[in-house]
Amino acid sequence: MQWLMILPEILLAAGGLAVVAAGVMGRRRETPAALAAATFVAALVALWPLRGITAEAWWGMLVVDSFALFFKALFALTGLLVVPLAHAYVERRGIHAGEFYALIVFAVLGMSMMASSRDLLMIYLGLELLSIGSYVLAGMLKDDDRSLEASLKYFLVGAMTSALLLFGLSLVYGISGSTHVEAIRRAVSAGDGWRGVAVAGMWFMLAGFGFKVAAVPFHMWAPDVYHGAPTPVAALLIAGSEAAAFSAILRVFTTGFGPLANYWQAVFAVLAVATMTYGNAAALVQTSAKRMMAYSAIAQAGYVLVGLAVGTPEGFGAMLYYLLAYLFMVVGTFAVIAWLSLARPEEMLDDFEGLGRSVPWVAAAVVIFMISFIGIPPTAGFLGKFYLIRAAVSADMVWLAVVMVVNSAISAGYYYSIVRRMYLTDRSATVAALPPGTSLVVGLAAAATVLLMLFPQPIIEWLGSAQQVVALLR
Amino acid sequence: MLSLLIFTPLIGSLVIALLPRENKDLLRRVALLFSLVPVALVAIMWARYDTAAEGMQFVERIPWIPAVGIQYFLGVDGISFPMLAVTALVTTLAILASFNIQERVKEFMALMLLLETGMLGVFVALDYFLFYIFWEVVLVPMYFIIGIWGGPRREYAAIKFFIYTLLGSVVMLVGILALYFQSGLGTFDMLAIAEQARLNPTAQYWIFLLLFFGFAVKVPIFPFHTWLPDAHVEAPTGGSMLLAGVLLKMGTYGFYRISYPTLPDAAKAFAIVMGVLGVINIIYGALVAMAQKDFKKMVAYSSISHMGFVLLGLAAMTPMSMAGGLFVMISHGLISPMMFFFAGTVIYERTHTRMLPEMSALFTKMPVAATLLAFAAFANLGLPGLSGFAGEFFTLTGAFEPLTSLVAVAVLGMVLTAAYHLMMMRQILMGDATAEAAGHAAALAHGHGAAGHGAAAAVRLPDLTLREAIVSAPLMVSIVLFGVAPSLLLRIFNPSIQALLSRMGGL
């Protein structure tokens, strides 16, 4: 039973090693990509027998519950979508396929470990596995200065983040004598005299996680890293890595620090407002498509933080839905950017000019992604925002809901600049041939973005059981 | 039936997306065909419509997202059904009026049909979530219609329209959610919330204000109106017809359908504010319209002015004033598309100008078209016997008792309205064609350089074409019909208005 519970992780680890081996030994260039995709499919399949189970294994280090399952499925799906979108890009940019896909598989393994843990050490382990892979992935364009800068910056900031996290973790360990979230929960709700130390430890951990999700004021690295990293890697970091950090935040703060909710709720509210407002304001003035999407990612992280600021089960459920919806919009948009960069590697917003005429179906899909980012129906982004706003209004935080909706209206300014370039200019685009991987990812992502809104009931029921896991406040 | 009605245009838009873009005539005809289906369905429903019933008819209800209490819930009553009819009719005519569009016909027709689905959906949705979806769906195609096929400043006008109305509607969304939680019923069902929720007045005030913001931008109520002249002037004719004919009514419809029945205490408390805003709209819109040189801009401000009557009718909250407000909505939904059609297409295509001072003596140059324009202008200024007069008359009569002083000012607005319409007519219809032809030709030569508009050509312009006549005829017939026999509409309005007022507890 214990082995079955970590079967998805075992498959990811084995698959990653197989990709490395294929990269070294195989002669066919497609093998690593195919193996990586097969690994993600296998991991998704291995999740199926675990549904409905709630159990701990390996001395409480790993837990399988619907919350963990939701995120593991989300991460495997992210990996599965990133592989085909990366294929043509990796070929064209001369990235070594074996290393690239292996690191992606290991990064997803790290994310899965983070989601599946109720022990701070295990979360840290997963985080480091994810991060170290990401540092290398960000620098994969070896002859591009921006990419190298991204890698180094990400590494330096990441090292500092780890230090902050570890420091906070040790303070918390000091008062609870354990790294298990349940033990921490018992300790912080009982130990009155030590509450100050617990809160201090919590602040440090919050800063550490804040860096990972690129919340203002811990965001400085994000635009440069997302901009400089290879485009498929940026998609993985924005959709997967941030979601992994959110899964850890949810687990640690709602369960371990649940009794201290009064201390962190307001902080998350401030972070949410600062993050979305700054991200949107900065995105408005960008001319590079990737950099604009990087700031947009900051703004979107701000929306997700609203769920934490609200601090109710509805808020957490809304976060989960939003992260899932966000995955498809981000991966779809970056697939298009990666494809456009085959012809014009600068990845400017102007590359979108005239797409409405030259490739109407792709342009229509991009419109779906953009209105989903803004939060206009009928898209998953709308329903996600709807749930977040609903949670905020339900918790009597109408002001936060209003800040959020005003921000979405502002964000229309820059998301629509892409739409404007696609349809309202007469210039025709110089584009490379559409790789099959790109059209597959864009098509799937656009369909998912619409279907998640029109038929959300199964997902919502699933989320209902997932949000109960982390609804142990007070 | 209603699902078929609202989704036929969507299907049409998908069909058009699959057709080849080269065959423009085929695209136009397919679009027209798909827009005629809702017209036919509305006609069938009209025959079956029970005017005695006060409740919802043709109801469809399916659970959609039961976890949150969201349903797919449609129905029409006396308030929404006539709007549905106007929407179906004006969309068809707008598509017909857009047959002269040559650029990107495929996208244009697909967007017009998508827009129709959104507009029809707004008027039949009885679930807040569904209502909001249709409300927002309208935004996207209209952005493209203005932005791609509009005038020289189209991009600015399109994004201004988009961001203004988006901001208004997202704030409205917060209001809807507040309503959902304050009602404590766990449903987004509009009727259930209106009937069962008894909110305390403070909550009502706040929710009313949040919803007001969304509706006010759409109406548009002064000072939220500045997007409208830009959008109207830049939009292509078909877009202007739908903007003025239907989109503006979505705002006032929101008051009738949501704010008043659901938040009666707030509606009463804000009545005087609504009335004053209505009168400001009437007077301000008329004065600014009078100062315009651009024909389309004049009609745009005249729309702001006319929507003020609807607000005044709402503010007075008498059976007659409320029915009058609805009547103005319908009547303006017929007259303003006709005005825009003439300003943007019929006259513009011949004179190549929208500037009033550059036109003159159209009566002698194109007698039939000029007569029809005069008809539209008289309808718009409220000539008795035409629908515009009936609506304004009921509104003012109904509002006289509770809001005497406001009505007195509003009547001044009617005088102004008559004044600027007559000035416009004197300017462009009358005059001596031969005497000014030389000057006119000179203006054209350096201003627009349109070939074939020399002194000789200026005397006589091609008159109304068959297609233009077909666009105008149904509007004219309806305007006369409802002007002569207003009871046709009142009969449909009254049971619903009575039900609405009795739910609000009278005055």
TrEMBL record, chain A:
* EC main group: translocase
Catalyzed reactions: a quinone + NADH + 5 H(+)(in) = a quinol + NAD(+) + 4 H(+)(out)
Which keywords does this Swiss-Prot/TrEMBL entry list? Cell membrane, Membrane, NAD, Quinone, Translocase, Transmembrane, Transmembrane helix, Transport
Q: Which InterPro entries match?
A: NADH-Q_OxRdtase_suN/2, ND/Mrp_TM
Major localisation: membrane
Read off the Pfam families from this record.
Proton_antipo_M
Write out the transmembrane intervals. Answer: 6-26, 33-51, 57-83, 95-115, 121-142, 154-176, 196-221, 233-254, 266-285, 292-313, 319-342, 354-377, 397-419, 431-455
**In this protein, which residues make up the domain named NADH:quinone oxidoreductase/Mrp antiporter transmembrane?**
117-411
Where does this polypeptide localize?
Cell membrane; Endomembrane system; Membrane
User: EC number(s) on record?
Assistant: 7.1.1.-
Q: What membrane topology does the UniProt entry give?
A: Multi-pass membrane protein
Q: Which residues form the signal peptide?
A: none
Q: Which family does it belong to?
A: Belongs to the complex I subunit 2 family.
Under the subunit heading, UniProt states: NDH-1 is composed of 14 different subunits. Subunits NuoA, H, J, K, L, M, N constitute the membrane sector of the complex.
The family database entries (NCBIfam families) matched by this protein are listed as: NDH_I_N
What is the role of the protein in this entry? NDH-1 shuttles electrons from NADH, via FMN and iron-sulfur (Fe-S) centers, to quinones in the respiratory chain. The immediate electron acceptor for the enzyme in this species is believed to be a menaquinone. Couples the redox reaction to proton translocation (for every two electrons transferred, four hydrogen ions are translocated across the cytoplasmic membrane), and thus conserves the redox energy in a proton gradient.
**What's the protein name?**
NADH-quinone oxidoreductase subunit N
Gene field: nuoN
From TrEMBL, chain B:
GO molecular function terms noted in the UniProt entry: oxidoreductase activity
Protein source organism: Geochorda subterranea
Residue span, NADH:quinone oxidoreductase/Mrp antiporter transmembrane domain: 125-417
Q: What is the lineage of its organism?
A: Bacteria, Bacillati, Bacillota, Limnochordia, Limnochordales
Q: How does it sit in the membrane?
A: Multi-pass membrane protein
Which Enzyme Commission number(s) are on file for it? 1.6.5.-
Q: Where are the transmembrane segments?
A: 27-46, 81-101, 108-126, 132-149, 161-181, 205-228, 240-258, 270-291, 298-317, 323-348, 360-383, 403-423, 470-493
Q: Which family does it belong to?
A: Belongs to the complex I subunit 4 family.
Q: Please name one Pfam family that this protein belongs to.
A: Proton_antipo_M
Q: What is its main location?
A: membrane
The record's InterPro entries line, in alphabetical order, gives: NADH_Q_OxRdtase_chainM/4, NADH_UbQ_OxRdtase, ND/Mrp_TM
First and last residue of the signal peptide = none
Q: What is this protein called?
A: NADH-quinone oxidoreductase subunit M
